[in-house]
UniProtKB/TrEMBL annotation:
Signal peptide limits: none
Taxon lineage: Bacteria, Pseudomonadati, Pseudomonadota, Gammaproteobacteria, Enterobacterales
InterPro entries found in the cross-reference section: IolE/XylAMocC-like, Xyl_isomerase-like_sf
UniProt protein name: Xylose isomerase-like TIM barrel domain-containing protein
Gene3D superfamilies given in the database record: Divalent-metal-dependent TIM barrel enzymes
PANTHER family (UniProt xref): BLR5974 PROTEIN, HYDROXYPYRUVATE ISOMERASE
Gene source species: Chania multitudinisentens RB-25
Length: 323
């Protein structure tokens, strides 16, 4: 940490915009033990800035299945608690984004995260994503919503940067996930350096890097027990932006036991095959489900404490530098 970073840390660390992320409660939400409105309660109790929630979180009780009246009630509850809402979805096609925007507007959300899931050679996939981005721009640029494109395991950082450069879409930026670049055969700090100028939102998690044949997978784990440069990533992200913080939302996305395989490989050519993949999912255990659900809840809450401990360490480091 240098003196410039130390000053930024001291100016910003007390007001880091931490958001509860629904995926930290993925198994509980699959079993409908925790529902969207419960996330608002937890976020408020934990003194967080808001909630990031997928349109399908909560299964039959999800926002995607909610009536207009229910979405309005969700919006009212969030406003009462002073919480910001970010909607997430797991594709980039027009139908998927139309649904996400409708839910976002009715639930009082401010932002939508998406990522593409196309199969094909890279040279065919990239133009499809570019067309999707133009659809969002042409239809929703003036909706009042911001949009983030997440690096989600298959595209490399420079490819995402090229998509944004060509889009000319000020309301679109990048969401940086602590681990997802690994599957695209990239390292976290180098990916951060490449994407730095366009990152406005973050998913915080930890993972063990899995060295597989000619590529890298990752298995998410309890924060602080993985291979990721957790503290350094937070330092670099907090310091983005010269006069004001560039990152406006940090999602606390504990994903213990989530696994993603390699998608990009050493020695691949300039037009590799991008395989189809389903939406992210962590497998339910075959037995002792209630114990696993309790553990997931505890892991999620413990991550909040752990991140706050790291933030306090950064503050102490900054004070030491400036002495």
């Amino acid at each position: 940490m240098d003196r410039l970073q130390a000053n930024k840390i001291l100016q910003r660390v007390a007001d880091i915009p931490l958001y509860l992320h629904a995926y930290a409660f993925h198994l509980n939400m699959r079993m409908e033990k925790i529902l969207p409105e419960d996330l608002l309660t937890i976020a408020s109790e934990q003194r967080l800035r808001g909630v990031k929630i997928h349109v399908h979180d909560g299964e039959s009780q999800s926002l995607g299945c909610a009536s207009d009246e229910q979405l309005g009630h969700f919006a009212d509850r969030a406003r009462q608690l002073g919480l910001d809402i970010h909607i997430e979805t797991s594709a980039s096609d027009a139908k998927t984004l139309d649904q996400a925007v409708a839910i976002a507007i009715k639930s009082g959300a401010s932002s939508i995260r998406f990522y593409p899931r196309y199969e094909g050679h890279l040279d065919d996939v990239i133009p499809k994503i570019a067309l999707d981005i133009q659809y969002i721009k042409n239809n929703y640029q003036h909706s009042g919503l911001s949009f983030t494109l997440e690096q989600h395991e298959d595209l490399k950082s420079h490819e995402l940067m090229s998509l944004l450069a060509e889009a000319d879409f000020p309301q679109l930026s990048l969401l940086f996930d602590f681990a997802n670049m690994i599957n695209a055969n990239e390292e976290p700090l180098s990916a951060l350096a490449t994407m730095a100028s366009q990152i406005t939102q973050v998913h915080i998690k930890d993972a063990v890097i899995m060295h597989e044949v000619n590529g890298l997978g990752h298995k998410a784990c309890i924060s602080g027990q993985g291979d990721l440069p957790f503290k350094e990533l937070l330092l670099q992200l907090i310091c983005l932006g010269e006069n004001q913080p560039q990152v406006i939302a940090y999602g606390l996305e504990e994903e213990v036991d989530y696994y993603a395989p390699p998608f990009r490989f050493n020695g691949e050519d300039n037009n590799p095959w991008i395989p189809w993949r389903e939406m992210s999912e962590t497998p339910l255990p075959e037995q002792d489900i209630d114990l696993r659900l309790d553990k997931e809840l505890n892991d999620a809450l413990q991550q909040i404490n752990y991140v706050r401990e790291i933030l306090n360490e950064l503050k102490q480091d900054a004070l030491a530098v400036l002495k």
